[in-house]
Structures are given as C-alpha cells and as structure tokens.
Write a structure and sequence with these properties.
Elements lengths: L8 E6 L2 E13 L27 E6 L3 E7 L8 E11 L1 H7 L16 H7 L16 E4 L10 E4 L13 E4 L9
Antiparallel strand pairs: 1-2, 1-6, 2-5, 2-8, 3-4, 4-5, 7-8
This protein binds a DNA duplex through strand 3, strand 4 and helix 2.
DNA sequence: CGGGAGATGGGCT
DNA sequence: GCCCATCTCCCGA
C-alpha cells in the first residue's frame, strides 16, 4: 500500500478553497515484527483508529507541537498504517503558504510539503480529522496518475526512528525534488 | 547548503 | 520521568 499510494492526490476541501498535493514519499508501519509501529504494543486509546477499517485517517500528535497523517491500510483488528511524508504541491499553493506562515517569503516550492508535519500544516489537517474516511469526505484521496512502477520507486530505511531502523519501508518517487530528504 | 540546539506536551513505563 | 514516525532558527562554509 505504501508503494500504491505514491502518485495519489491528497485533497482537502476547506472553507478557504481546495488544497491538494501529489504523494511523493511514504513509510509503512507494520502490524508484525515492527516495534517502531504505534500499534506494536497493542490497541490503546491513541491507536484505536489504526485497528479500525482501512481507508481512514490516523493522525497523531508528536514532539509537543506537530501532527502527522497516516492512511490506515488493514482490516479491522490489524494495526497497520502508511505515513505520508511528502507531497508535491498542486492546488491551493497560496493557502498552503499562509498555513505555513510563509506568505510573502521567498520560499522554494519544494519546501512547502517536504515533511510529514509540514504537509499536515499546509493542508490544514487538524486533530479533529483523526478517524475520518478518506474516500468521500472533505479530506480524501484521489487517484491522479497510473500506478507508479517499481522502476520509478526508491526504497530506503525509515526516517527519525530509534528502533527497527534497518527495515526497508520508506518509499519515494525517483527523481522527485519534493521529498523530505535523500 | 548542512549541522546542531531548543521547543513543547501527550503517552507510556 | 523519559521518549517521541519533527520543525525552525541560527550558525558556519
């Protein structure tokens, strides 16, 4: 699923207008043999959404001030999700600049959504959207291109974790300048 | 540009 | 108490 989500459009229809970006970087967090996954120690109040139906948003609070956005990928009872790490901005770029407090600054487009908390800020994704369906609501996934072929996907270790550091579970579109890091 | 310190609060041991 | 799927700012090159 982390591979399949590359190329999808993540869209948020807000009162300020449509904001969207093309998914260029993801990470998988697995239900088995993956101590870096929030679901690894079983279901809790925080991780309940991960154990719910697929196609829903799992949004968690991190480092005292940021949120990260995931797509739940497995059937109910299995805690698994894909972290969206970077987007290529498409619609509502002016809104994203305001949301990132970058309006009027000479910020390169590639730094607008090149990180999991940055894209959450840019798309105005709040804690209130934790658990919502991503199929038909104001926050949703849209198929924008044909599936990205494996030849055009780079696989690396995941970013910023202190356990299970060697698993090859980070994926990004080869050649994209919008990823969070090389 | 690249590296390092500091911010800041919920979750879990 | 300590950890944390991060970001911004500031420094030097």
């Amino acid at each position: 699923m982390a591979r399949d989500l590359l190329g999808y459009l993540l869209v948020h229809e807000t009162s300020a207008g449509r904001i969207s970006g093309r998914i260029v970087e993801t990470e998988a967090y697995l239900s088995e043999d993956d101590p870096a996954c929030h679901a690894h120690r079983g279901e809790t109040k925080r991780t309940a959404v991960m154990f719910g139906p697929p196609g829903h948003a799992y949004i968690y609070f991190i480092y005292g001030m940021y949120y990260c956005f995931n797509v739940v990928t497995e059937k109910p009872g299995v805690g698994e999700a894909v972290l969206i790490r970077a987007l290529e901005p498409v619609d509502g770029i002016d809104i994203m600049m305001k949301r990132r407090s970058l309006a009027g600054k000479l910020t390169p487009l590639r730094s607008l959504c090149n990180g999991p908390a940055k894209l959450v800020m840019a798309l105005d994704i709040g804690r209130d959207l934790n658990g919502v369906s991503l199929l038909n609501g104001p926050l949703r996934l849209e198929r924008a291109t044909k599936k990205i072929s494996d030849d055009n996907i780079v696989v690396t270790k995941r970013v910023g974790i202190s356990v299970a550091q060697d698993l090859p579970l980070r994926f990004y579109i080869k050649g994209s300048e919008f990823i969070s890091k090389k």
